User: Fold Beta-phosphoglucomutase from Pedobacter westerhofensis.
Amino acid sequence: TTIACIFDLDGVLVDTAVYHYQAWKKLANSLGFDFSHEQNEQLKGVNRMRSLDKILDWGGVQKNNEEKEELATLKNTWYVDMISKMSAAEVLPGSLELLQALHAKGIKIALGSASKNSGLILERTNLTHFFDAIVDGNAVTTSKPDPEVFVKGAELLKAAAENCIVFEDASAGVEAAIAAKMTVVGVGEEKNLPGADIWVKDLSAVSVQQLIDLVVQKNK
Ligand code: G6P
Ligand code: MG
Assistant:
């Protein structure tokens, strides 16, 4: 079996989930409210405007479209300030090693991220050259849990969905991968990522052979 791998970015390959959280929290606080860690889980994998809508909803704050654009831009300015200072040291444990091992075996690799900042992050962390295809927030019209981002990734890799493995830290992303009929490695806890095929703390716990076995097993 020839597998293909589609990686989420924030929280899977790089430690940017914490920057998103800090920037959204700062925005909420500036509007006079706060939100919890549990609520933050619901923002993972969700695109910028949908995230803002959820946060405003939690705060019971209403804004018109023009104001929402301004707030989203403000949050992104803070976020871009943080990620502009990133380095390869912020690649999460095991991610570089897994990308290298997949690359060495000629296994195709795509990015499947909701972020419009993926280009900057991949560049800052020296990961760009690993990707045969990049599908990010600039390339899709619908947000995870819609499967569009992963379906496009598989198309670009010329891979059948049943041979694709998605790596996700977000519940919306796991849902999207399931809807795309792909195998899912949940990066995080089972309780936060229902429906994944396996769960790992980070990618250091994953070998290429294990991924191939997982797909073979699933397609039986
Ligand atoms: C990822 C993150 C989300 C973020 C989204 C959009 O999916 O998990 O928290 O909202 O990307 O990111 P962007 O960089 O375009 O604001
Ligand atoms: Mg993520």
